[in-house]
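**User:** Once you have settled down, spend some time on the protein underneath, comparing sequence with structure tokens, and judge whether sequence predicts the tokens.
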Amino acid sequence: MSPAPQVGPLKKKCALLTLVKNENIFLPLWLQYYSKIFNPEDIYILDHESNDGSIEECLKKYSFQHIPLRWGYYDEIWKVERVREKQRELLQFYEYVLFTDADEILIPNPRKFGSLRNYIDGLDRDYVLSTGFQLIHQRGLEPRLDLRRPLLEQRSYWYPDKMYDKPLLARKPLDWMPGFHEAKNASGVRDPDLWLLHLHKMDFDICWLKHQAIAKLSHHPDCVKKKFSWHYRILNLREFEDYFIPRELKKGGARHYLKKGILFFEWLKETLLKQNSLSWSEWISERIPKMTKMPQDLIQKKVI
């Protein structure tokens, strides 16, 4: 149940919200991180008919508000509608609501903020856009993930991903689009000091098994038609490997240099027309991601 309604300055600061279905890998990691920041009564988990034991196992170790939901499809449109409704409800009782998927960890720059709680306590904006990064399993350099050990002891590479510059933390109702990558009423400049770490690709085998499991579910025809969650319907291992390491990260070859040349002339045109103030290196980094090692202070902090 939600807390008793509060108004004005009596509202609690922030609620945490997610929606899950069979997240036996990611939900424990999500709770491990966010339970250090949020009180149990402020953590809301919308559970879409999980039957893998993940909810029951997590309840043995963590406390949270468990809200069962029923729907016969894997359906991004239904999901975003349920989250919109819950966010609006929670905003009656909280100043802010933070929604993330179970494989998303929101981390402020550790050089400037001690914790996510410190960041939220100092926030005074209607909403904020994160700066998205994909944590990636470098299969030739890193072993398979051992879930008994801290994640960032075993993974140290990431790359920027504009798809995850998401509006997730807000004090006004957000009109999210399916996937939560954008909202119709939340645009603007991302906060470069608020990092959204997407864990989906933290391990090749875990990722492949998750895709296979979701592919077997009944996907709503409207979502299939509109190609929502298209990547969860990849059944061919070779195609999945191409998805796991995006083409933009694979340097070399005529295609890579041709694209870079075309983009250089786009940057030059924008610069000459005074439509762009970014340097070439800043501009190209937003269009062709580069895999790098994560900051050492983030790795050493071992937030997960």
About this structure: The first helix runs from residue 26 to 34. Residues 270 and 276 are 5 Å apart (CA to CA). The two ends are 28 Å apart (CA to CA). The domain at 8-205 is CATH 3.90.550 (Spore Coat Polysaccharide Biosynthesis Protein SpsA; Chain A).
